[in-house]
Design brief:
Helix content is 31%, strand content 16%. The protein contains seven helices and seven strands. It is globular.
């Protein structure tokens, strides 16, 4: 397995919304597409992707894909994980055909695996370091993902392992022709709009 072929990136730039067809914009030596939506058929429509005109190199970053999207339910009896690869496979295949090198943005939100938001270490540290009024205002406005429960960290690690194996192109268990070279965990981890765990917990996600 070529683990080094798939990098986990920490990117802090914000994503622009892509409400219509994917649009390219100049970003240094690359053409970049922001906000690719794995669930929106319009974002993998061949006619629209053809408008890119074979521009290269072309880098595209997805909107956040939540853990619950790829694994809606807890493991079944025997610890078997049921992955919803049918969400990713067609989008990644279409983008690969169009010459887009995709950065998949993962979000660890999961109704069965995430810590309850009110129990997150981030909330505790905010309440300990700010006045009651300021802490409550900040906590009330936080919408970020919380870390996995302690008994679900192994499930998160297995998700990453399975994701790499499916899209690393090494010929073992691959979803041909879908390929991934880049994974970004959480869109903006420095913002409580996206993450309400600690720095060490974020490091553990990687």
């Amino acid at each position: 397995m070529r683990w080094m072929g798939l990098a986990v990136l920490l990117l802090l730039a914000a994503s622009a919304a892509a409400e219509e067809a994917p649009e390219a914009e100049r970003a240094g030596p690359f053409l970049g597409i922001e906000g690719l939506d794995v669930s929106d058929p319009a974002h993998r429509d061949p006619a629209r992707l053809a408008l890119l005109g074979g521009a290269a190199p072309l880098l595209g970053r997805t909107r956040p894909v939540a853990w619950e999207t790829l694994e809606p339910h807890a493991p079944v009896m025997g610890g078997r994980h049921l992955r919803a690869w049918d969400v990713l496979d067609p989008a990644l295949a279409a983008w690969a055909e169009a010459g887009v090198d995709v950065v998949l943005v993962l979000d660890p939100r999961s109704p069965w695996a995430s810590q309850p938001a009110e129990e997150s270490s981030w909330r505790g540290s905010v309440r300990a370091s700010l006045s009651e009024a300021d802490a409550e205002a900040l906590v009330a406005g936080a919408r970020g993902a919380s870390p996995p429960r302690e008994d679900a960290w192994d499930d998160w690690e297995l998700l990453l392992k399975d994701l790499v194996e499916r899209y690393d192109g090494d010929g073992e268990g691959d979803a041909d022709p879908a390929r991934l070279h880049w994974i970004q965990v959480i869109e903006r981890p420095a913002s409580s709009e996206y993450w309400i765990g600690s720095e060490s917990e974020y490091g553990r996600l990687l």
